[in-house]
Amino acid sequence: MNSLASKYVLVVGGSSGIGAATAKAFADLGAKVTIASRDQHKLDETARSIGADVSTAVLDITNDDAVSDFFARAGTFDHVVISAAQTPTGAARSLELDKAYAAMNSKFWGAYRIARAVQMNEGGSLTFISGFLSVRPSKSSVLQGAINAALEALARGLALELSPIRVNTVSPGLIATPLWSKLDAIARDAMYEGAAERLPARRMGQPEDIANAVVYLATTRYATGSTVLVDGGGAIV
Length: 237
Description:
Distance between the termini: 40 Å
Strand order of the largest sheet: 3-2-1-4-5-6-7
Helix content: 40-55%
Number of domains: 1
Radius of gyration: 17 Å
Low-confidence stretches: none
Largest sheet: 7 strands, parallel
CATH architecture: 3-Layer(aba) Sandwich
């Protein structure tokens, strides 16, 4: 029996990249999916590309009132996935404080706001998307590693507070998403090829790899308080 058939799923950050792949994975398994982000045009394009009955919602997770208002009228969900984040990178001594605050407000506090406001059905799950910098920090992305680690700790605490709702985290490595679209195509391809040569998995990560892990956590009712690292082995090399 398909445990996701007719379940209500919300993917925040579902208009591109990992979020879009996750929304499609749930929709392909018969879930009733809503994708949310700040850009209605991107939402509409993604909904059309998924090809299923996907609902859309404009949501700014950095805005307290917007999050509260959305969940006050959204009803209850069975599974919620949060992949939305705007996190500028840079070394701690060079990244402007306003950008650092904005990064934390988006990825960490955005998830926190949603966890406080969302209404979920019994047996449901909440899944965060963090990143492998939490376990393999970079001197040029110090804040991102700290935010990812904080997000994973938040999930573990919420797994206790929100029980029996299950709360988990998927931690991706380097994934081929539109995040890298601003790079010159030659430089981007070289980065992808270099990653594939360096990683034990010998391939570049794809959004669908992360979507698979999210679906696994949503459908594995014994999984809570877990962080699943999907990085091609990047944390061990």
